[in-house]
Amino acid sequence: MLLSTRIQRLEESATLKMARLGRELAAQGHKVINLSLGEPDFDTPDHIKKAATAALDAGFTKYSPVAGLPELRKAIAEKLHRENGLDCTADNIVVSTGAKQSLNNIAMAMLGEGDEVLILGPYWVSYSEIIKMADATPVVLTASVEQDFKVTAAQIQAAITPKTRMIWFSSPCNPTGAVFNYDELEAIANVVAQHDELYIVADEIYEYINYTGKHHSIGAFPQVKDRTITVNGFAKGFAMTGWRLGYISAVKWIAQACEKIQGQVTSGANTFAQKAAVTALTAPLDPTYAMCDAFRNRRELVMNGMRDITGFKVNQPDGAFYVFPDISYYFGKKYGSHSIQNSDDFAMFLLAEAHVSSVGGSSFGDDNCFRLSYAAAPDALLEAIERIKAAVGKLA
Length: 396
Fold this sequence. Notes:
Elements: H1 5-9, H2 14-27, E1 33-34, H3 46-57, H4 70-84, E2 93-96, H5 99-110, E3 116-120, H6 126-133, E4 137-141, H7 153-159, E5 164-170, H8 182-193, E6 199-203, E7 228-233, E8 246-249, H9 252-263, H10 271-282, H11 286-306, E9 322-323, E10 334-335, E11 338-339, H12 343-354, E12 356-357, E13 359-360, E14 370-373, H13 378-392
Parallel strand pairs: 1-12, 3-4, 3-5, 5-6, 6-7
Antiparallel strand pairs: 2-8, 7-8, 9-14, 10-11, 13-14
Helix pairs in contact: 3-10, 4-10, 5-6, 5-9, 7-8, 11-13, 12-13
């Protein structure tokens, strides 16, 4: 056993695991509909790709500064000030190889043994594991489908202890699609403001996939503006998943600490991708809005199908491109060799019997649910719903 205790206690990403199992089943000749990954099925808009090509032709193939190209950091700061109401400059920005690295930088720079982090659940699968890698302890607060999957300020207040160092959450949320409104965020900010050494990590990667008409950033509230680290990126809103670009906005000393961590791990992100990202932020957002409209239509298609499936309890997601049905009705039911005792059993049953790849809710902090991504073609979504309906109809 030459592996470290760190890697031995680390869980495999559930989303990546289910995507891998789906690919393996497809390789056997089965027609698998993969709804496990959170990846837009749209191509990156042409004007962004052309900007990358132009950057390559201009020789932008060398290392970038660790914290990112100055022009990109400036463009990000201007975007955050203009659209999110954040009080920041380029000095507050660190560009990383995806928002996941941004989160890891934060954890490694600010957390250690004995620290606790409140995670507002359901939550993105990697939060807990990133926190554990920093030797801190994740403490999951839960909200059910009846609560629209949104943890309240009162729950947060009751959970804070002398060891609580941070609160991590996403809005719009992966996996539930829940979106915190202005009043809900203000209430959370007021709680955090009472605790001088408590910080917020606000994951806003799905900002542009928001069906409420207005995105609110908790970092814009003056009582917590210096204790909020805003995490965002280009993967979802610009269909740039493979470009691997994310960023944070934080007070300067936190930004410098994250830059220091990154300098010893990966250094600067892809240079010509960063040049293209400047174009993404400064050009008109028409392609982004068009993608959001398409996702909204797919949401309605999926929600209509989910409401017709016996035993499914589903909230109305206000953002992102996921549904997170409560399927606890099926716990204890069986079909053939399948016995459904939890959400992972349910997801594996759907993969085997319906050839639909999903993700059990246990890794998201709610074992009563499972996650489906509707970032897929409408025809595939309709077929997946019919397959799911037929498969669960066999359970008794």
